[in-house]
Design goal:
Layout (H helix, E strand, L loop, with lengths): L2 H11 L3 H4 L12 E7 L4 E8 L7 E8 L7 H15 L4 E10 L13 H4 L4 E5 L11 H8 L4 H18 L2 H18 L5 H8 L7 H6 L8 H24 L4 H8 L3 H10 L6 H11 L3
Parallel strand pairs: 3-4, 4-5
Antiparallel strand pairs: 1-2, 2-3
Helix pairs in contact: 1-7, 5-6, 5-7, 6-7, 10-12
């Protein structure tokens, strides 16, 4: 399941979502802007950065990491990336906050001894989605994050509940955005099911949503080709950033091979790269899969 892209969509659509998870959010949370930034020398890609409004200078910058796979060097990377970016932009910010989102505590890095002082600091916030409580008691946007962690049977029940609740609570604009995000989560979660099967599960028509145009190739209607191409480009950009973080700067020939992959192979690469630790792993994957 492509959770990175799902959370990226969530934060793009509703940047204030991050602050709903925090005990002490900033008073101007609604004015923050979600962005993805790069730090050179060495090259880092930071996916989740919440920038304060330009009118508040200097302001507090928030770094966010969504981690659904165990990474025994996660804190080494997160602290290095965040503090280096903060150092290079010190004049813009008065302080920094780090937010690490896990599905559960068992995914957290095992050896945290070198970072006990940072992890116990009020500047570091560790969020465990399975400890937020009953999904039906949470705000709808927060419920979407928890939905990504549920098993298939429970996810179907709660997705239908969130859709029904959304119809009652949200105005038209929010209503549409939430429907699309729920369908994104469910299409990724049940990628082996047909369109009609997923429609029946949710009680909606996926052709009416952007996610259907972006990640499903069946039943393409007039004008949907442009939407699908934009979705493919976003998927390529996200995977290239993740590869740069996992194995380092990509040589031009390797980058071209990745960019030439069709959507299905891109999604497969997105899952496989979680286990990569070197450029050799990526090259081996390409040799095995591109020739197929």
């Amino acid at each position: 399941m492509r959770r990175d892209s799902i959370f990226y969509k969530l934060f793009q659509q509703y940047p204030n979502l991050l602050f709903e998870l925090l005990t002490n959010p900033p008073e101007n949370a609604d004015a923050y802007r979600f962005d993805s930034v790069a730090v050179k020398e060495p090259k880092f890609e930071i996916d989740g950065v919440f920038l304060p409004p330009v009118t508040e200078n200097p302001g507090v910058v928030y770094f966010c990491e969504v981690q659904f796979q165990k990474d025994e060097l996660l804190y080494e990377r997160v602290f290095a990336e965040s503090y280096l970016y903060f150092y290079r932009n010190r004049a813009r910010f008065s302080n920094l906050q780090l937010v690490i989102i896990y599905p559960s505590r068992k995914i957290e890095q095992s050896d945290i001894r070198p970072y006990l002082s940072q992890l116990n600091s009020p500047q570091v916030n560790r969020i465990y989605l399975d400890e937020l409580g009953d999904i039906r008691q949470l705000p709808v946007w927060v419920g979407l994050m928890v939905l990504t962690t549920l098993d298939d049977e429970q996810a179907t029940q709660e997705a239908r509940y969130l859709l029904a609740r959304n119809q009652q609570e949200e105005p038209q604009a929010g209503n549409r955005a939430i429907i699309e995000l729920i369908t994104t989560i469910m299409v990724y979660k049940f990628e082996n099911k047909s369109r009609i099967e997923v429609e029946e599960m949710l009680g909606i028509t996926l052709q009416e949503t952007r996610v259907y145009r972006e990640i499903k190739e069946e039943g393409i209607q007039e004008g949907e080709e442009r939407g699908e191409q934009r979705g493919l480009q976003r998927e390529k950009s996200l995977i290239l950033r993740q590869l740069n973080r996992r194995v380092g700067e990509l040589p031009e020939n390797i980058r071209q091979q990745v960019e030439a992959l069709p959507l299905e192979q891109l999604e497969n690469l997105g899952e496989a790269l979680l286990d990569f630790s070197s450029m050799a792993d990526l090259q081996a994957w390409l040799e095995e899969n591109v020739s197929r």
